[in-house]
What does this fold into?
Amino acid sequence: MDPWSVGLAVLVVVGLVAIVVGALYDRRRNERRAQEMLSPPSRAIPHFRADAPAPQYLSELQARRAPSTNVADALSAEQRTEITTQLADDRTPTVAAGYASADFVTDPTSRWAVLEDPVVCICGDEVVSTRELLGLLERVILSRTPLVLVAPELARDVLSTLEVNRIQRRLSVVVVLVPDAAERERLARLCGARLTERSDRQAGYLPPVDLGRCERWVSTATSSHVVARRTATT
It folds into this structure.
């Protein structure tokens, strides 16, 4: 056999081997890709350190018990007299809706919920999840600013979350449920606020101009009062 024929045969064999190897490689690569696409993503599962203390969980009863180390927000006799005079003043704006829960009471003697210089968030629709309020709550907690939340309705779990945070003194808040849209609009005008919508709350878009202010907010079991109102720019 002449050298040219031998070289051609070798070239054909090498070519066939290269084709087979390439086909097998592509097949395995495609199978691997398909498996990666169909398999769940790789996730690193966090674990406590071996020497980490065990987490502590509060029962419902414990969560609703005020910490013994915290001082109650009780008013002095002079403050109660001053507020009583303010509430009796015909010029003090009043709405026929009190606090949504007695857990928001700050003064056990008078059974009032009194917040000094709070921000006022007035919702145009029902608050259905705590997620809607996360941005606002983070803001007021970091700035230690009291919060008045006015809404036509709150989901039960949202109200419970705010109650517990109030009881544990993590948040100074009072919730007032005002189903009447006209009354909510009136409160918005009194406090210099704008009605907030669920889509904006969920997106975390609550610019300071949407929030109202007043120098003192007082809620009883049946009514709420905007004392010495003012328009805010916070």
About this structure: The longest strand covers residues 212-219.
